[in-house]
Specification:
The chain has a 5-stranded antiparallel sheet. Strand 2 and strand 3 form a beta hairpin. Helix content is 55%, strand content 11%. With 278 residues, it is an alpha+beta fold. It is elongated, with a radius of gyration of 30 Å.
Length: 278
């Protein structure tokens, strides 16, 4: 198979994504390049006959001959030995890239996204069932209404509530800000919520609260003082230990990021070698 035939097969396989996103082929290209243009930009396939490397390149601004394309990915494409199935397989990969780069994301109507359900307080206290991460999300959103949209965005994006992702990206910074700068009423409300969920929660939700949220205090004395004021005895022990370990980890991480200048030790010469050097 030559490259012209291969491009015909690839273009045929890309027909649906090109129609979906409004791309059409630009005529008059070199034999080893095929380019598609749409309202949102351009993409092209550039095959190097010497290396058998096919590059997928794109540009968002059409400047004619001066258009600057960025290489997104490279694939080994041995044209001489390629079959129809190889062209289709490559087209599938390219189509996925084109959609991810140029497809417009539909705006999610957050009013239609339901908040996660919380476990009943009575059942949790009686040991019938434990608080889970959905319960944490529900109670967190109720206590801090400004976080509700972020929780719903998390669900809309991932199809379910991903607690680790939510708290790393949004929830934990909010908690730390309340601990540092919040009023006593806000701090008290925060720790009342965290303590209750932690004490009657699953191992997963305890890890989220202990490590992902409160572990980010990293042993800061001022924040730890606020936490000690409101934490229950049951939660205080693990939180202190987590912070002790993470503070130490941060110390060593900083050393790895900014290692001290290496100074080799001076070698001591024996009396005989010292005499020979003189």
């Amino acid at each position: 198979m030559d490259i012209t035939t291969a491009f015909i097969q690839i273009e045929k396989a890309l027909d649906s994504v090109n129609k979906e996103l409004g791309f059409s082929k630009i005529r008059g290209e070199k034999d080893n390049i095929v380019t598609f243009k749409g309202n949102k930009g351009l993409y092209r396939l550039n095959w190097d006959s010497e290396t058998d490397i096919l590059s997928f390149e794109c540009a968002y601004n059409d400047k004619g001959a001066e258009t600057e394309f960025e290489t997104i990915s490279r694939s080994l494409f041995e044209c001489a030995d390629a079959q129809d199935k190889d062209c289709r397989s490559l087209a599938n990969e390219i189509g996925y890239e084109v959609r991810s780069l140029f497809a417009a994301r539909k705006k999610v109507d957050l009013d239609k996204v339901k908040m996660p359900k919380a476990v009943s307080r009575t059942k949790a206290k009686n040991g019938v069932i434990s608080y889970d991460t959905d319960s944490l999300a529900n109670r967190f959103g109720t206590a801090f209404p400004e976080s509700k949209d972020k929780i719903k965005e998390n669900i809309a994006k991932h199809g379910e509530f991903l607690a680790e992702t939510f708290f790393v990206e949004y929830g934990t910074p909010l908690v730390l800000d309340i601990i540092k700068n919040g009023s006593e009423a806000q701090q008290k409300k925060l720790f009342k919520l965290l303590c209750e969920i932690y004490e009657d929660g699953t191992n997963e939700v305890q890890d989220i609260i202990g490590v992902t949220i409160l572990g980010e205090m990293r042993g800061d004395p001022e924040m730890m003082a606020v936490a000690d004021k409101y934490m229950s005895e049951y939660m205080a022990g693990p939180v202190h230990e987590i912070n002790r370990l993470l503070k130490k980890k941060k110390k060593y991480t900083k050393k790895l990021e900014n290692p001290p200048i290496y100074k080799p030790k001076k070698k001591k010469l024996s009396p005989m070698k010292s005499a020979l050097k003189q």
